[in-house]
Amino acid sequence: MRKVPHEQLLDTLKKLPGVDVQNRLSICSDRELALATMYMELLQRSWFLSFLPEAKVKRVQEEINLQKRLHIRYDYYLRALQRIQEILLRRKPSSEFTSYLRPRK
Prior knowledge:
Layout: H1 5-15, H2 18-26, H3 30-36, H4 42-49, H5 54-68, H6 74-88
Helix pairs in contact: 1-6, 3-5, 3-6
């Protein structure tokens, strides 16, 4: 059975030391992190956010609540996951992530 995209990200997190995960996730934008958790179950999201400082977790949760009111395109979710995965693996991100989200029509 094929894994959903965010499960690949969670697998990467499991392979890295916690300190590295925290340092690398901390440079991601709140919006990217919120997008990456869009389809995660509550336990997965809680575990993912547990690597972040409390203040950043609050900001990411605010962004999650904002995104729930919007119709976010699936490709935004995929791009956020890809960028975070690249940062975790210390690759140069393939594209700049825009902070503007254009709702679907």
